[in-house]
Design goal:
mainly alpha, 8 helices
């Protein structure tokens, strides 16, 4: 995993531009509006979503479903089904199970130079030296307090960030309360 290279970002942009300018799709507000097929897909999706919500409600709600591991199990089951359909060739993944190229190339990764790393470390040092540490500690304590309660986390996080806590520090405060997800 890495940041996109300039080349890959350009390819993504050109793909969007081809779709936007060469297909004419942007000239119609809703190119599939009124399509029976799209409407039936929408109806199917709404029906499936309602059934899913009823299932979660029957478990006692979202919190009970989380505690029972329901969502994690559903995600793992879906990933398994998708992988099986890819392996059987029922689902096409371009470049993986169709339209493969025989050449073996390593992906181009964007590296971050030591100079940039040193500049970022210096910016972080300067930030920490110039901020009010007491306000940062209070903000992070408020984040942890909110995380332990049922109150909305966003206002506490916003205040901690306003006091110039780093995203890493806020994340650490949340990790201290919630821990980290580990697949079963």
């Amino acid at each position: 995993m890495a940041l996109p290279t300039e080349r890959s970002a350009t390819i993504a942009l050109r793909t969007q531009q081809v779709i936007g300018y060469e297909t004419g799709i942007s000239e119609v507000a809703d190119p599939l509006g009124g399509s029976f097929f799209v409407e039936s897909l929408t109806d199917d999706l709404e029906r499936a979503a309602a059934e899913y919500l009823e299932k979660v409600d029957a478990m006692g709600g979202a919190v009970a479903a989380i505690e029972a591991g329901f969502y994690q199990d559903e995600i793992h089951e879906a990933a398994f089904r998708i992988q099986r359909s890819i392996e059987r060739g029922e689902r096409v993944v371009v470049g993986l199970n169709r339209f493969q190229v025989d050449e073996t190339t390593s992906p181009e990764l964007q590296g971050i130079g030591e100079d940039e790393v040193a500049r970022q470390i210096e910016r972080l040092r300067a930030l920490r030296a110039s901020r009010d540490d007491a306000a940062v500690r209070a903000g992070l304590a408020a984040v942890a307090r909110a995380a332990r309660s049922t109150e909305n986390l966003l206002p506490a996080m916003k205040e901690a960030l306003r006091a110039r806590a780093t995203l890493g520090e806020v994340s650490d405060a949340l990790r201290d309360v919630f821990g980290e997800y580990r697949p079963r």
